[in-house]
Each structure stands twice: as structure tokens, then as C-alpha cells.
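Hi there. Long-time user, first ticket. I'm pasting a complex I've been working with (about 1861 residues overall). I'd like to know whether the download I got is complete or cut off, because the file seemed smaller than I expected. Thanks.
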Amino acid sequence: MVSPMYIIAAGLGGAFLLGLLPNKWRTIPYAITLAILGIMAWIAGSWLYAFAVQGAASVEIFTAGTQPPFAINFRVGLAEASLALLTTLVGLHSALYMKDTLFKQGRQAMAVLLIFIMALCGVIFTRDVFNLFVFMELVVIATAGLVLLSADRRALGAGIKYLIVSQLVSILLLVGIIFLYHATGTLNIDDMAAAQVNLLQGGAMAFFLLFVAVLAELKPFPANGWGLDIYESAHPAFSAIFSTATGGATIYAADKMLQIGGAEWLPAATAIGIVTFVAANIFALVQNNDRRLLGYSSVAQIGLLLTVAGQRDILGDAYYYVAGGILLAHAVSKAGLFWLSGLVAQRELTDWAALRSQPVLVFAFATFLALLVGLPPFPGFYAKWDLAHHLAAEGRLWLLGLILFGALVEAAYLFRWFGYVIKREARENGLAWQSVKADVAFSAVIVAWLLAYLWGHLSGHGNLLHAVPLLFALLFLPLDWLPAKLKNVLAISGLLYWFYLNYPSYDPLQLIFAAVMLPGGALILLASFQTQKRRVGFYPAAMLMFAGLAMLIVAKSSFDFFAAWELLTVGSYFLILRGKHSEPHALSYLVFSLGGAFLILAGFAIAAQGAPDFKLAALAQVAQPYAPWVFAMLAIGFMTKTAAVGVHIWLPGAHAEAETDVSPMVSGILLKAGLFGLFMLLITMGKQQLYGVELTYVMLWIGAISALIGNLMAIFQEDAKRLLAYSSIGQMGYAVFGLALMNHLGWLMALMFVINHYIYKSMLFLSVGGIAKRTGTRLMYRMGGLITLMPLSFIAVMIGIIAMSGVPPLSGFGGRWIFYNAIMTAEYRLPMVIVFLAGPIAFLYLFRLIHTIFLGQLKDEMRKIKEAPFWIVLPQMIFVVALMVFALVPGLALRKVDLYMTQFFAGNGHLNWEGLTISSDFGYWNPVAIMVIIGVIFMTLFLWLLFVNRKAQPVKQFNIVFSGERPFRPETTHFAWNFFAPYRKALGFLTQPLVTIFWETVSELLHSAADILRRFYTGNGQTYAIHLLGFVIIVYMLWMGGKP
Amino acid sequence: MKEELLKRIVKTPDGQEIEVDPLLDYYCQEGPTVQPPAYTAIIEKLFNWARSESLWILGFGTGCGAIEMRPLMTPRFDAYRYGIQWRPTPRQSNLFVISGYLSTKTLKRVIRSYEQMQGPKYVVGLGSCTINGGMYWDSYNTIKRLDDYLPVDVYIAGCMPRPEALLAGFEELKKIIRAGKAEGANLYAKNFEWYKANQKSVIHDWDMPDYNW
Amino acid sequence: MDWIAMATGFILILMGLYGALTERNILRIIVSFTVANTGVNLVLVAVGYMHGRTAPILDKTVPVAEAVARIIDPVPQALVLTAIVIGLGVTAMMLTYAYKLYEEKGTLDVSKCRDLKW
Amino acid sequence: MMEALVEFNWMRIPWALLTVFIVFNYGFLMTALIQKIAARVGRRHGIPIWQNYIDLIKNYALRTSITHGVMFYLGPVFRLSGGVGLLLFVPTIYGSDMFSNFSFAGDLILALYFVFFGTLGMALGAAESGHPYSAIGITRGLSQMTAAELPFALAVFAVALQYQTLSITDIVAAQQGGVLNWTLFTNPFAVAAAMMSFLGSMMRPPFDVVLAPQEIPIGPPTEYHSSFLAMMQTNRALFPIAKIVVYMNLFFGGAASWPVLFLKVFLIYMVSAFVGVVFPRFRVEQSIRWFLIWAVPLGILAVVLV
Amino acid sequence: MVMQALYDTLKQRFPLGELTVQRDNLAFITVEAVRLYPLLRYLRDHEGFSHLVLLTAVDWLEDGQFQLTYLLNNRAKCQDVGLRVMIPRDKPEMESIHDLWPAAATYQRELREMFGIDFPGSPRLEEEFILEGWHGIPPYRRDFDTLAYARETFRDRPGRETRDPAQHMKQQLYGDKGDV
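Hi, the file is complete. Here it is re-exported in full:
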């Protein structure tokens, strides 16, 4: 094993060696540079291997052969080795990446690079404060030198600002060091820590100066303008090092400082960290320049790390796992993103659309974003999970809230960016492709997935990358070159096989959800056969969603549940984003979903109270002061997915703008995930009271109002898919209402809605999608009279709306019947008023749907259109059959689960399924008899009318009585636009978009605040210096006020 | 020909160009046919009785005579007791009362409405104007003889005839119907060309199909 | 006496900082920082000074055996040496920047380097 | 399935047909009678009492007819199926096995929702004609219905809560034994709310803007004629009575024999006739507001007080 | 007297033709065609004649002129003033006033259809207004022979008698004593 000292030595030696070479040489110095960096990385790597795998103990290296305090000592342990490996590897890759620039600038630049990497390793290794100062100053000088590598001339300005601030920092540092030395008589960090500086005369002040100086290097808010300028203007490869390696090394230095300062200084670190994290993320919201945005994000991530460092008192053993996870996720993703930014020719975020020409790059970009945001299966996810649990266990809820808020803001701007990449128009020559750069960036992708595996392996919750559904979804990434039809076969068989495999292990409740989600999904996927070509990106996303759903149903522990939840959220986001105009809607979907998910995370964390493996069933045992809060958080999180009123505004756009076969998936299937969550929640936690208010009662109101508002909004839509989307809000409102009734039949009704809504909404979305495909529009008033041209779609819609409206004999009636029986025993009666009102309103939009599309007047340009494609019609016809069967024998699906649910309500109120009649405590219902009687009457009358009118003259569309006139044109004769104008007059005031206005105001406020406050970064180096002084003074006031 | 009835080329959503001929594509092209009575005489008799006792008048006032129809609904005359009532749509009416002078412009609407009624259907000409032009005998814009254009079952003379005359006219019509002689619709179908020629000779801008179903 | 050195050091630091924050000309800023650095070095030395002791040079007058009691702490002095070297490096770097900036922009006014902000 | 066939009492079918026949004739005569009464209020003689039969025969006797498509046929079929079905799903005569028809198929909720069957089907059929007035009429009708149904739903909920059952037969049974046992007296708020809703569902003034002959020639059925219209006429005789039977069973003690049924139905029908001859027509948004302001609070009161 | 006063006021600004006072509050003033528009605008904006009551025409066949009458009403003072404009029959064209009163466009359409007077610039002037598919000279022109037209277009019913209404009524009422 080579001593780690050789890392330093190799760097220094290499730099000297380069200095000796002739000025004109290029290749040899470059080769030497790479070799040295390689050696450094190899040494670091070998040590890491030794520590991590062979379990070696950390080593102390004493320079000059003496012990401290007489000499400087280095320490290399697991953390140091990993950080050194990270630093050197990033350095090596950046050197590869910067080949052109380094060749142009010559050996001096390479030497500075080596010094830079060496100095960073020194910062990591050293245990001596003054030595730390020296290495940090070296870092400063090298940074200033490397900034000049940039092709951007503005980098000069950034460099000088950086130097000015560094001078200030070094003054603070030196004064701090000397007084600390004066107080403790040593320069060794461990000795200082042992000396407990806070207790010594003047020690606290001295430590404060030292600490604040090191923190200043971390670019804390607000003293970080200079860092952002460097990120924006420096060479991306350098920014990669500056963000990851410098950030990592400095945060490690700060960590060492905290060891000196002791527990007393942890809150300071926490506060500075969290303020930085939140503020930087908010500021990033309004950035348009990609590198500056990455700069803000880097600052934020380092802030988060500082926050984590501030939690080392409660994290215990998990400290390195959490901090490491966040740090590595930040480092790898940020390095990767900076490297990618070098491939993009222009600097606006929207210019990244150029990445689309290379799908691999999009994959890389997605990986980095997921890594950065902390989505499963990446390390940040595990780290966030553990962090949240520790924070919640110790009652640091404010901190948890702020972290989650910051993370949400971060996710918002990052995924907005992703939306630009997928959706915006790519400029000509927007991609400055260089294969070596791409290779470097892609190496980060590989590292990202390796880390994902590693962190999963270490997590103690089971490795997500071992989950078969997830692997199956990921399998579609390498298979994406296959034709879509083949992939579709694979996907369908995968879903069916997984269902078949797990069929025996589902309980009846799970079975219903699983049947809707897996074979149900397969059924909808039939429609995907209709696409030609390869359909890049569809299958990984769709299967990711289905993987999440499959895992959700069988999740036993809160971790599995939450991971599945995040997976399905991300998968569906990618799916929704595929729609033509879905960019803003997909974003709002993701932001709301992640917001909900974070609430769920917080809820689980509070519920677990530090328990490492929290079973979902244990939710029932959550202790009293927490239980209602947990309930509220989880319920709101789940209701975000079911789009309950208040958090529903993402749904219409997301569902309406999605592709033809995606809309039924996200509407018919995905919404059920929220219901499943609510089921799980109510089964385990039951009724909860918060400040004397029964939470299920609140849910009852939310469900009822959702039903009303969803239906009411639906009737005023001109866009067919939006109409259906709003209708989903209403239908989910019913389901939530049923659940919140907290009785047997209420739950059964919710289940009935799960099945019914899946069938008819999928069917309707498919038919409307097929029609939109043929007519080229989704605006209903532009259609009309399509009944003869698209008879099958018409049948599907007609059956769908009869079912949805709840009219016997179709299956919607069953839902209504159970609903009435359920409310008979409900404790609360007032919310029924709202639900009763919502019910008939559904007729309005359903009639509008079928009338304005299929009936009325056929338009000129639609005269020759054909029936929807076979593969879109086929699943609809299957749905029609399914609906009929379910209407005839609801017992097929419900009987078992009815029995199963008796256990939750002490056997009260279940149905009696004897013979063909279904009876409850209050009433009875015989679906077969109803169907037969209505069928007989109907057919008799129909045949009679046909017979009487056997000679009737079929006429065409303008053969209508028109008060002696004739219709002018079909467009002016088709009554369709603003269909329910009188209704708008009567109840339109209820459709005021208050919720939309609220959320828009929130978003607008955040953006405006960010836009105003960021002006505080004036770009003047002296102002930045004053910011730094201000920062020092504020920290002093807050933590040292009153102390010597 | 009106612009909206001209053939036009439109682009379908999938990019094809198709020709739309509104008269052919939007209107039924069939002509009227002679409709035989019911198979057996007794049923036809029953039907004729029912038809006579259930006269549904199209609410379409063409001239000043329209004002004479209103009193029929009032307690003074109360036409309802004779099974007479007014319907707002030609589809459900079987009696067309041409109430007074008929300008060529209105004639077009009258023809359309008449053809939209379902047979058997009856026409009553009210007032001198429908008989021979009446005081509008020299008008450039008012037809003189209604039966040139539509098969008329009963004329009620006068300028204007009073509501009592109308009631008497309806009674007369009922007799004709019961006798099975009110076959105006069949007459119209049989002499369709003649009627059309007459109609087109006064309606210069014929902008509808030959038969308006 | 050591407090005079200490006070002078702090005054120099403050003067330097004041200059660095108020002057617009980069060269003046650099000079200000040099002043401040001198102040810092003075503080370093002043902290290490002990009354009645001699310089930490082991020669005939200060035998090794008595050294611990006779000499002042050598560490701050060593630190000062290093700090001066590093200060020099940074100052050189800043001067390079000043030169390049002047080349680029034709001015040494630091407030003119504001093309990166927000 | 097979056992159900065997168990099924096939005599129910002729009895059901008899019920339909009786109610059909009663409906024809009663609507004519009520028109006559309304005429007498206006000092007119009014239509002959058998006028409806003549009109029906006349409509079947028309020799020509046109069709706009399949749904055009289905409209009246749906409408009349709705009427006949509703009639047969509700026990007509309390305590009579003969005339309880097919009420074994479902309870009150079935009746409640089956009301919409005809509405929805008619809407589809009328819309197929492509006539804008039909569509306008339907939008008005549906809009008005949303508000008119609400007090009724509340009243039904209140009554179901009151008797703790959803079976119509049981509800009627609970009202036996004297007039004071009727829901009318035991739960007056519910009945008041329901009767207001009843006004809205009868297509009479002030809630007849759906048909509004002066502006949208009779709305949905604008294009209907001859036998199509005849079928709808039949329904207009059957359906209101079927609906009134539901009201009667829920609120007015049901009927144990045909004469009682005839009387009660007539009286309930007269309520809407009375209101109709006195009030002018509401616009859609006015009637919605009227229901929400006057009827719904009564319904809520009924639900809360039960 | 009031109308005379108005006439005098107007006279100071516009060259006017003769004044015909019909009643205290109704008078007609003849003006040249080119003066009409500014005069109308003045009357509307300064004299309170805010309402265009009607616009009609008279065919002076013998003089070879059309007379256009613009009747204005002052609601506050309850006065009407008519402006008469004579335009040549062989070049029947007049400035449109639809921008002063939008309603004028309808009158102008009617005049165009019935008299063949053109109002360039008036909206929808070319569209049919009352007549449908009319060919030939406009029916309100006096040189259009409506009787001849009716004879050749519509068939007479045989047996129609024409009586002199005055004689007929005398006969009806007084019988033979009518001559007394």
C-alpha cells in the first residue's frame, strides 16, 4: 500500500516536473498530468478499498516524523479516502475533458491543476489548522489561476472578486488560528477538540473567527455572490471540480472545525446551512443561465450538507451514510451536469433542448437530476429518508419542513429545466458534441448507478435495485432501440406475468387494486400497439410507473411504500411529459406530487419515531400527540394524488395533455394509487382527532367538495380531455367521500369507484383520444355528428356515460346504490347536500361530451374521417364487455373484498350476496333482474318502433325544421360552444379558480421574491466583501452575543 | 346560388382535400312519393276520423290573417274543443293555415315548412288574398293563387274572414278528411313537377333542394 | 510592549479593510490588503511574544536544555513566515488579475467588473 | 341463473302488463281532465276527455315519417322504457302481490336513478336530430334538473333515515294506520322539499323553459313526429304517474287499492297544475336559484331533524 | 318660430335651400347633396338632433330626380327636422351616413334595393334586404310597372270581377236609392 502522503507528493512533484519541461511541449506534459492524476486516484482508490472492503483502520501520517503538536499530521480514513478519490477522479476526468484548453494554455495550466487537486487533498487529509490554512490558500491561488482557463472573458471579473473575498477570509482565518493557538497551545485539530475551546479564555472568539472563515469558503448565504460568478463564467470542467471537489473538501474542513467547536456550534452550522439551502434554491428559481443555476444549486447542496453536519449529534452512526449520500449525489450529479453543459453550445436553460438529438444524453441528464433531487434508487433518496427519520425522531420538525421545502423548490426548477430539454425547440447546432466530453459525462452516469447500488446495499432497507419490477422497468432502457410493438408485447407480458406470479399472495383488497393496475394496465397498453416506430422513452417511463404501482401494493414497510410511491410519481411524470403541450402541466404534476410525497415522508418519519424498519401496520400504534398529525400529513399526501380540491390544479392539464394511451393510464390507474394509500391509512389509523376536529370528517367535506367542484368545472370545458380530467377530480372526490364515511359500505363504494372509474374513464379517454387523433382537435365544438363515422367509439362513449351517470342497469348504479346504503349509517349528514348536488351535475358534462362530439352537425372537414385505429378501439370494446359483466355480476369482484372488509368494522353493515339479489341492512338490488327487465322492455319497444317506421325516410343533417329557414352551415348549426351558458349564470360563481389563483400567487411570490432579492448580488466585488463582513457580524451577533 | 351552398374544397384533418357539395351532402335528395291508405278500409276510416278530430295547426302566420287565429284560442271561440291545437314545429303539425297574403319571399318558407310536415297534411287558404290575390292583385311581390303552389283543401273567403268563418272552414275540412278526400299530400307528390315549376317560376333564387324533408 | 504591537496590528488590519472596501482602484485595493496582511502578521508575532525571552534561535547563548524556558514560542513566527509567503503569492495573483483586467477593460475600477451578477 | 328462471313467477308478466294498461288509460284520461280543468279556469270548454286517444291514433296514422339515424329511434324508446320501467319497479298497490310488479328487482334507489334513464336516452335521441333547439332544450332541462333533484334527494334521504329502510314497500307499510302516520305529517319538511322538487320535474310552468314553444319550438322533441311522437305521448301519460306513485308511496301513505291510487295521484298531479296555471315561466338560472334558495334549506332541515 | 330660429342659426354656417315649416316642431329644409353630411353632423352634435327617425326616398320621375329625406329628431326639445336632398335619377348616388348613425345602413340597404340608389361605403349594401332574387329595375321606381309584372308572373284566377269600391258600397248600402 502506498502511503497517502504520496498523493500530495505526486501532485507537488508533478507540478514541479511540469515546470521543468520546455514551454512548447504539449502532449508529454498532458500525459504526465493525466498520469499523476491517475496515480493520485489510484492511491486514494486503493486506500478506499482497504478501508471499505478490508476494514482497515484509519492511518495517521506524521510529517517530519514527530507527533503533533510538534509536527503536522495527516489522517486518512474511510471518509478522507472517499473524498480524495472523488477529488482526484473529478480532477482526472476534468483534465480529460479540458484537453483542448489545457493544450492551448500549456504546462503551467496543467501544473496549476495538479496543485489544485493536491491542495484539495491536503485540505481533506490535514489535521492541523495552520496547514489547513496553507492548503486553503493554495486552493485559492490555484482557483484564481484555473478560472482564467475559461473562454469567457467575464471570468476575469469573477476571479478578482473571488480574490478580494479570499483575502478577507484569509485574514479572518489567520487571526482566528493564532488566537486559537494562543488559547490552546496547539495547532492540531484533535488536540484542540480535546481542549474544548469554548471553555478557554478567548477560545470561543478565536474559534468563531476560524469557523466563520471556513464557512465563508462554503459560500453560505448571503456571502456567496463571488462563487456564483465563478460558476457562471469558469470553464465547465473547472466548475465541476469547484462545485464537487472544492465543495466536498471544504465541507469536510468545516466538519473538522465542528469537531473543534463541539456540540455548541452545531446549531450555528445547522442554521447557516438551512438558510443557505432554502435561499439558494429560491434564488435559483429565476435563473436562466444554466451554469449560474447549477451554481445556485451547488451552493444549496453544500448548505444542505452543512445542515447535515449540524445534525451529527443526532445522526450518530448514520452521519457518514447520510452526509456521504448527499455529498456524493451532489458531487456526481453536479460534475456530470457541468460536464454536460460543455456539450451545450448556448447558455440559456432552454438551449439544452439540443440534448434531445442524442437520447443517451437525455438519459444522462435525467439520471443527474434524479440523483440531485434524491429520487429512488439514488443515494440521495436513502439519505433523505434516514435524515428525515432522525430529524423527526428528535423533534426537529421545523428543520425537516425547511429541508423538504427547499428540496421541493429545487425539484421544481430542475424538472422545469428537464421539461425544457424534452419539449423546447432545439436550436441549430445547439450541441457542441465532442465524444471525449460525452464520455466523461457518461462516466458520471455509470458512477451514479454504481452509487445507487452501493447505497441501496448499505441502506438496511433492502436494495431497491434488487426489486424485480424496477429492474424490469430499467431493462427497457437498453432495449429502447427495439420497435415499439415488440416492446409493447414485452411490457404487457411482464405486467400479466407479475400479476400471475403474485396473484396468490394478494389479499382481496390488494387484489382489486392489483387487478386494476396490472392487467388493467396491460389492457390499456393494447392501445399502444397503434404507435409505429420506436417510441423512444415511453416504455421505460411507463414501466417505471407500473413498477412503482406493483411495488406499492405489496409494500409492507413505510420505506418500501415510499420508494414505490416516488417511483410511480417519477415514471408517471416522464409519461405525462411526453404529451405535445404538456410541459407546464407535467411540471405542476411533479411539484404537487413531490410536495405530497414529502408530506408522506414527513408523516412516516414522525410516525416511526426513529424506528429503523417501520411496518405500515404499525401506523395503528402511533402514539397520541403524533397520530393525528401523521394522519393529516399522509392523508394530504395521498389526496394530492387523488387530486382532492385544493391540490387538484395539476390534474386537468396533466391528464388532458398526455398522449392518447397515457391519459387512460394516468387517469384510470394512477389516481388509484392515492386511493390505495388512503385505504392503507384508514385501515391502520382509523379515526383521528386534531384539536377536537375529526379528521375523517374533514376528509368527508373535502371529498364532497371535490366531487362538486370537479363536476362543475367539467361542464364548462370545451376540451374533451379536460372535461374528462375534471370529471376524474369529481369521481375521486366520491371515492374519498366514501372512504371518509368510515363504514363498511362507504369503503365498498370507494372500491366500486376504483373499478368503475378505471373502466369507464379509461374507455372514455381512449375513445376521446382516438377521436382527437382522427379529427386533429380536442375542442368538442369543432367536432359533431361523428356517430355514423365512428360508431364503435360512439358505443364506447355511450356505454361509458350511462355507466358513469349511475343510471341503471349499468355498473355505475351499483356505486350509487351502495352510496345510499352507506350514508344511511353515516354519522354526518350535512356533506351529503354537496354530494347530492354533485351527482346530477355529472349528467350535464356527460351529455355534453356525447352530444357535441357524436351528435349534432357533422362538419365539412370531418365528412370523410374514419373510425379510430383498431388498437385504440379494441381495448374500448373489451372495456364495454367488462362493464356489462361487472354490471351484471358485481359480486365477481366485490364479494370477496366485502367479506374481507368485515374485519375492520366488526362485521357491521356488509352485504348479503345470496342468489342474484344483493341486499344490505336497508335495501336490496338485483342487477340481473334489472338488466333483463329493462332489456325486455327496451327491445320490445325498439322493435315496435322499427316496425312502425319501416318506411321512414332517412334524411341528412340539414333536413331539420328551422323555422321556415334552412341551416346556414354546420358550424353555425351545431349547438356546442359554451353549452351550459345559463348554468354559468346560475352557479358559475362556484367555479372561480380560487385554488389556482392561490397556488399561482404562491409561485409568483416565490419567483418575485427571488427576483427582487437576487439583485442584492450586485456583481461588485466590494459589495460581496461587505456581504461577507455582514455575514460574519450576523453570525457573531447570533451565536456570540454576550459571550467573550 | 348562395355562397354557403356552393361546392367547396375543404382540408380534412389528415391533410386530404375533399369536395363538399352542400346541396347533395347536407340534404336528402329523395322526392315525395304517393302514400297509399291503410290496408283495410275500416282502419283507414278510423284513421281518417282520428285525423279529422285531431287537427294540429302549424303556428306560422303568413299575413294579416294570423291575427284572426289568436281569438280561436280564447274562451270565446275555444277551438281546442274541436280537437284543434297549435304546434310550433311542422314535424308535428298536419294542418297549414295560410293566413292571408303570401309574398314570394314567404312562399319559399311556406313551401319548406309544408314539405317538412308529415302526410297526410292539409292546407287551408284563409282570405281572398290566397284565392285570387285579393287587394294585392297587382303586387309585384305577392302570389295570387295559392293552389298553383300548394294543394289547398279548403279556402275560406273574406278579407279578413272572422274566427267563426275559420271554425266553419275547419268543420268543412273535417268533413273532407272523414270522406277520405283530403289527399293533398298525395296530390302534391303526384303533380310534383308541376308544383315545382310553378314555385320556381316565382321564386327566383331557389336555394334549397327540390323537396325539403 | 506586546499590546502596542497587537494594537498596531489590529489598526493596520482595520485600515487595510477600510481601504479594501472603499477604494475603487484595484491597485489600491491590493495595497490595502497588503497593509491588512502586514497587520495580521504583526498580530501573529505579537501573540507569540513573551516578556523577557529571547528569540527562538538555538545557539551558544541559548542552550538546548534551557530553551523551553528561555525562548519565546517559535510557532507563531514560523506561521508568520509561511503567511508572508502565501500573502505574496496571493498578491502576485491579484496583480496578475489587475494587469489582465486592465488589458481587457482598459480600467482598474473594480466596480466596472459587474457583467456577472444576480 | 336457471334456478332464478324456474323460481320466477311468470304470472307477474301479465299482471305487469295489466298495470301498464290501467295506468296508461288513467294517465290519458287524467291529463285530459287536468287540461280541461285548466281550460275551465280560463273559462274555456277545453279538449274532449278522449282527445289524447285521438291524437295518439292520429300520430300512428301518419303515413310518412323521417329518421335522423339510429339514436333518433332510441330516444323515444329510452323515454318510454324509462316510464314503463319506473312504473314496474315500484310497487303500485300496497299489499297487492299482483300489482307489486317487478319491485323485487330493486328498492327506492333503483326508482330514484331509473328516473334518469328516460331523460338521458331522450337527450341522446333528440340530439341525434342535429337540431340546435333540441340541444338547447336539453341543456336547459338538464341544468334545471340538477337543482330540482337536490331537494328531492335530500327528502328521500330524510325519509329513508326516518324509516331506516330503502325498501319502498317497507316505507309504505310504516305509514299505514291512519292519515297522521303519513310522512306528510311525520316529516313535513321533507315532503315540502320533495313537492317543490316535484314542481320542477313536471315540465309545467313556472319550470317549463325546457319546452318554451315561443323561442325554441318545444325543445328536445322539435324533430319528433308521427309514431315517435306517439311513443313519447304514451310516456307523457305513464311517466308522471309512475313518478307520482313514488311520491305517493314515500310521502302520502301509498295506495292500497286502485281507486285510492287514482285519487291520490290526481290530487298530487293537481298541485303542479295549480301552480302551473298561476305562475309565469322562470328562466333556467332563476329556477336554479329558486330551488337552491327555497327548497334546499327545507331539505337540509328535514335531513338534519330526522 | 322655433324652426325659423333653427333655420337662421343653420343658415349662418351652411348654405341652405328653402324651409318648409309643417308644424311648430316639424320643418323641412332642402339642402345640396354635398352639404348634407356636415349639416347632419352639426345637427347631431350641436343642436341635439340625436336620433335619425327615418331615411326615405321619393321618385320624382318627371323631374329626373330622387328626393332623399332625412328625418331627425331632437328628443329633449321634441322637435323634428327633415333634410331634403335632391339627387339626379341618372346617377343615383349619395354619401353614406352610416358612420353618423349606424342604423342608417339599414335604410340605405333598403333604398338601394327598392330605388337603386347607391350609398358607397355603407355596410352590407350588396346583400339582399327584402327582396330575394330580384332581377330587373328596382320595384319602387315609378317607371317599374307592377301591374304588368304581376300579370306576367302570377296567374289570375278566372272569374274575378273588379268593381269601383265607392259605387259598390253605395249599391250595398242604399240599393237603388243611391242616386237620390
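A couple of notes from our side: The longest strand of chain A covers residues 59-62. Chain A has a mean pLDDT of 90.
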